[in-house]
Design a protein that fits this description.
2 domains; 192 residues; PH-domain like; four-stranded antiparallel β-sheet; 6 helices; alpha+beta
Amino acid sequence: MNPTGAIPRELEDKVKHELQTGERVLWMEQPIPRYFTAMSTGAFLFAIPWTAFAIFWIGRASGFKLPDFGKGGFSFFPLFGVPFVLIGLGMLSSPLWSYRKAFKTVYVITDRRAITFDAGWTTTIRSYPPDRLQNIHRKEKRDATGDVVFGQRVWSGSEGGRQAQDLGFLNIREPKKVEQMLRKLAEHATAT
């Protein structure tokens, strides 16, 4: 949630546009940005030696001297290190991108469904009707914030292993309250 506690107008408009006729919003919140940033800390720490080594390699490959274009002494070999430096810079900036993503994400519970809006270059909107809210569980942190998970995306990795990503309302305040709201919505589906 942003510091003012309000959802940005752009996200509010996306939510309103997504709602069906007569659908009411019961709860709406953005994730806590600092936890998104913490999740990217590993990539950031790995990027420090990666980038330093790539820069060092370019320097050593070029002989630590300026190229002499007039004498034909320029070598393209050191330029092979440039993509590695760019990858390192991308990893170094991952906490910034994660922090920014949190401000473009909003979670919604209506009287009919749960909805996640994950914005970046594009906005991914996932809608979870009550019948898809059957495996709800909560992960709480010591400060009483946490995740309410109600789905999982599983895919095969490049080396054949399976990878999974939790789907739900991640890094929110009062996850217990939100879990209760989702369970009530799910009960409505089983009662009808």
